[in-house]
Amino acid sequence: MTARPAQVALLEKAHGLPAVISRCTQAIEERIRLLYSDETAAIVTALLLGNQSKISPETRARFSLSGTAHILSVSGSHVGIIAALVMVILGFVRHRWLKFFIFTVAVSTFILLSGMQPSALRAGLMAVLGMLGYTWQRRIYALNIVSLSVVILLLSQPTLIYSAGFQMSVVSVAGISIFYAPFRTFLLSLLPFQSSSIEFIASSLALTFAASVSVSPLVAYYFSTFSVVSPLANLFVVPLMSLGMVFGMLSIVVVPINVGIATTYSAATAWCIRMADAVNRWSVELPASYVHAPELALLLSILVSSALLLVLMSQSRRQAAFRVIMSSISLFFIILIADVQPSVSRLIPRTNVAVSAIPFQKDSTLILITDRKPHLYPFGDAALEEFIIKLPDSAIVGIRGNSSEWISVQVRAQRPSVRVFNYPKSLENRVLAVQGDVTVYEARGQYQMLVRAVELQGVGALQLKFEQLKQRLASE
Q: C-alpha distances in angstroms, 455 versus 351, 416, 448, 459, 460?
């Protein structure tokens, strides 16, 4: 949220644990700024502290479309890395309960510093419960640990059930607990020989597929994106970013001891991040690498996840080949019969302006902004500006009115690639007439004509004449 400085009063300074956490976080951020360039520092800050606010929209979009965005937020994988490092460091401690105490404090400290993200809370509690079972010398069942962690967290904080991050975290780790072992067995059975490298690749693929088939429909439901290249991208990006996270932590710890060694670690971190970003660039540029449309993404994610689950649970190569053929044929006919069309528009209710977001072409979103009152004093809208700036697609903004023009100026200042044009009077009433967060179908014809005009004429300081546009489209 935002507020004017004159409307804010500082009642008291932070004290106790929040103040300590704040000071520690600021100290870590200072060291990150000292060691890394701006773009790399933004990603390192996200990896270590869970703060993604400084990551550029372009980088965020690449990670999202490649299906690797989870690595940018503090999630189960990050807590797992921390837990593994702590276990290695505590290898010399023979007293089991002392080891459990130090382990719990270390994992809890990381979760506190990273902002107590729902997925991190789940992973941290699972790690502590697993360590408790190890300390008691009891056999550990992953699915039981997952279930107990979910029950404890929901009893302590019931609203977590509405958190998309918590839902995806639980579903993905439950999928890994259930499907990892059979997937790994099947993948190893396809190979004529075995080796440590082959087993590592099979294990990595099994882990990625087990998480993907579980969480892909949920991701498509919330974010309207289905990444086809996600298993391939995760196979390379996750190890690179995990290694970068380890080097990043070492660089922060070593700074007070020796700046030269810290710089070496930071260079290794930057290399890992660059390689991961290069993999994402390459993967999202592949043909049909992802689907970004609400209805189609959800349908495809459900169908593809079901087909993968069916194939990877096969008992033999012949059965797998038969299931691949049948799944492919079924997918083709289901999509053909469904004939899913992307949404024409969705409205974004605002106070001073009416806003309609229209999917258009590939990787482009058309945003129509209209002042609710003629000659309105130019009010800004920080939330709307941030929404447009952080759009994963390239943005084309149509404006009509003083406030809409002011908003477009603020957006262009932060994201110069956004294209802005004045759209015709004939569409103003259509945009203003519909209220609420609903899909607009009755204005489809006019929207399609507007989109077609943008395709034909380009976007600049463009005034569209609606009658001429209709005649041109009719003649074509």
A: 31, 20, 10, 8, 12
In percent, the amount of the chain with pLDDT more than 70 equals 82
CA pair distance 436, 346, nearest whole angstrom: 9
Q: Is the dihedral of CA 5, 8, 12, 18 positive or negative?
A: negative
Name the residue with tokens 């129509």.
368
CA-nearest of 348, 352, 353, 304 to 330 is: 304
Residue 459's pLDDT band (cuts 50, 70, 90)? very low
Which residues contact residue 47 at a Cβ distance below 8 angstroms, ignoring those fewer than 6 apart? 71, 72, 74, 78, 241, 244, 245, 248
- For residue 221, give the amino acid letter: Y
Q: 310-313 — which CB contacts under 8 Å span 24+ positions?
A: 312/179, 312/182, 312/183, 312/186, 312/187, 312/209, 312/213, 313/179, 313/182, 313/183, 313/186
Residues 74, 75, 79, 82, CA torsion sign: negative
pLDDT, one tens digit per residue, over 212-232 is: 888 888 888 877 777 878 877
Hey, CA dihedral for 9, 15, 18, 19, is it positive or negative? Answer: positive
Structure tokens at 114: 């990273």
State the Cα–Cα distance between residues 224 and 299, nearest whole angstrom: 10
Q: How far is CA 346 from the centre of its chain?
A: 21
Neighbour-count burial of 384, counting CB atoms closer than 10 A to its CB (0-12 exposed, 13-18 middle, 19+ buried): buried
440 and 356 in contact (C-beta within 8 Å)?
A: yes
Compute how many other C-beta atoms are within 10 angstroms of the C-beta atom of residue 339. Answer: 6
Q: At CA 230, angle to CA 225 and CA 235, rounded to 5?
A: 160
Query: pTM of the prediction?
Result: 0.61
The token pair at 242 is 């995990």
Average pLDDT over residues 311-323: 85
Say how far apart CA 55 and CA 41 lie, in whole Å. 9
Q: How far apart are CA 17 and CA 24, in angstroms?
A: 11
- Phi, psi values for residue 188, rounded to 5°: -70, -30
User: What is the rounded distance in angstroms from the CA atom of residue 14 to the CA atom of residue 440?
Assistant: 47
